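User: Please look over both lines:
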Amino acid sequence: MVARGEIARFWSLESLHMVSSDGGTESAALVDDNGSEEDYSYEDLCQANPRYLQPGGEQLAINELISDGSVVCAEALWDHVTMDDQELGFKAGDVIQVLEASNKDWWWGRNEDKEAWFPASFVRLRVNQEEPSENSSSTQGEEQEEDAGKNRHKHSESKHQMRTNVIQEIMNTERVYIKHLKDICEGYIRQCRKHTGMFTVAQLATIFGNIEDIYKFQRKFLKDLEKQYNKEEPHLSEIGSCFLQHQEGFAIYSEYCNNHPGACAELSNLMKQGRYRHFFEACRLLQQMIDIAIDGFLLTPVQKICKYPLQLAELLKYTTQEHSDYSNIKAAYEAMKNVACLINERKRRLESIDKIARWQVSIVGWEGLDILDRSSELIHSGELTRITKHGKSQQRTFFLFDHQLVSCKKDLLRRDVLYYRGRTDMDGVELVDLEDGRDKDWNLNVRNAFKLVSKTTDEVHLFCAKKQEDKARWLQACGDERRRVQEDREMGMEISENQKKLAMLNAQKAGHGKSKGYSGCPVAPPHQSLHPLHQRHVTVPTSVPQQQVFALAEPKRKPSLFWHTFNKLTPFKK
C-alpha cells in the first residue's frame, strides 16, 4: 500500500476533494434519478454484510465451515483451462468441493477424482451448502405417520429458509455491487477527468469502458428489486419479474466485457509509472474504498454478470412449482443464462481473433484484405485435393473460417511453411455432395468428393478428401459454418474494428512479418502453452487461466503443496 506521506508529496489531498459546480463540497450520499438519496451508506452495508465487504471475510467463513466438518461447494463462473498437473481444470457451471481456503487467491479443492489448486476468483460459493433431508427414519403405525408429518413440516421450513438465504444473497450482493460501481465512478473516473495532464479521453474510455452506463442501469434494477423484496418474509419475495423486465438492459455488459482485455493492458502500462500507482491509491483512500486494487474493482462487472445465472439456478432449486414466482424465476434463469452465454461467446471470439491474426502473419505472400475483416473463428482445417476443369489435381491445406475458405500450399522443403494461394467466399457458394463415380459435368471419376458452386457465376470448385470420414467432417464443418453465420446475425455478434486492428497490430509486432511455425491451425496463444521446465514447480502456476484475460496480472504464486499437506496432518489445527 502507498503511504499517505508519499501521496501527500504527489499532490495535496485537498485537491482531490469532490467540489460541485457552485464551489461546495459534494455529499458522499448517492442521489438517484428522482433526486432522493439511496438508503445504503457504506457503514450500513458493513454492518449488514461484513463478509461481503471486508477483505478475507468470505475466506474466514469458508475455513470455519470446513473446520467444523461441513462440505463446502462452489460453482465455476468460467472455464479454467490448464496444462499444470497441480491445477484443477473445470468448465463453467461445474461444482467444486472446497477443501482449503487459507490462501485468498488460490484454493485447494476436489472436482470428480482430482484434488488440486484453482483460482478463487473463478468460482461462486453456494449459499446453501447442505441439501434438506427429503426423508427421515420412521417407526411403524401411527408413530410413522406422525413422524412423517413432522418431517414434511420441517422440510417445508428448511426449504423456506434456503430460499430466504438465496434471496438475501441476491439482495445483499446487489447492494454491495452498487457501492463498488459508485466507488469506481466517483472515486476513480471523476478524479481522472480532473487530471487532464495524466489521462486522455481515449485512455479513460479504454480503461473504464461503459461502466458509468452499467452503474446507471444497475441503480434502476436494484430499485425495482427492493420493491419486490419482502423484508418480513423474504422467501415470499417475487423478484423474477425484475430480471425479465430488465433483461434487454443487461446486454450493455457485452461491450464492457469485450473492452476489458484492452482496459487491463492500458492500465498495466500506466502502472509501470510510480505516479499512476500513487494516484490510484490516493483515489481509493479518499473514497474510503475497501483494500482492493483498481483492477479488482474493474473486474467486478465481469464477475457479476456471470453470477446471475448461478444465483437464479439456486433460487429456482428452492422455489416450489406452487410458488407465485416460480414461472418468472424459471424464465429469468433462462434469460440471464442466454445473456451470460452471449457474453462468454463474444469473449471467446476476442481470444480467437488474436490467434487468427498471428496465423495470418505466419502465412507467406498473403494477399488482399486481412482475414479478420470478415472472419472471427476458425471452424475446420485440413488437407484436400483440388481438381481443376482440365483434370489437374492440386494438394492444398484449407482453413474454413466463418464467411471464407482460405487455401494454402506447403513448402516442398520446409513443410511447416505455408504460402497463400487464394480464398473462397462462403456466402456466395452452395455446397453440393457428390457420389463416388463419374461426374457428368466434369467428365471425371471422383471419390470422396464435394463441390462449392457459385450462386451468381458459373464458377465451380471441386474437392476430394483422402478418406470418407475426412469428407464427412468437411461436409459437417461447412454446415456448421452456415449455422454459425446465421446465429451471429441473430445474436448481433460483432467484433469492433478497433479490436480487429489491435489484434493485427499485436500479431505483426510479435511476428515482425516473418514466417512462423505451422501446426495445422492458428498458433495457440502463449497462455495455453507449457512454460519452460525450470518453471514447472508446484508453487508456481504454469499457465495463465483461460479467463485471466479479465485480470490485470497473472495469478499470484500458489501456496506450496507441502504446507497444504502439513495443515491436513498437524494435530494442532483447530
User: Anything to note?
Assistant: The chain has 15 helices and 14 strands. The chain has a mean pLDDT of 77. The radius of gyration is 29 Å. The CA atoms of residues 211 and 252 lie 9 Å apart.
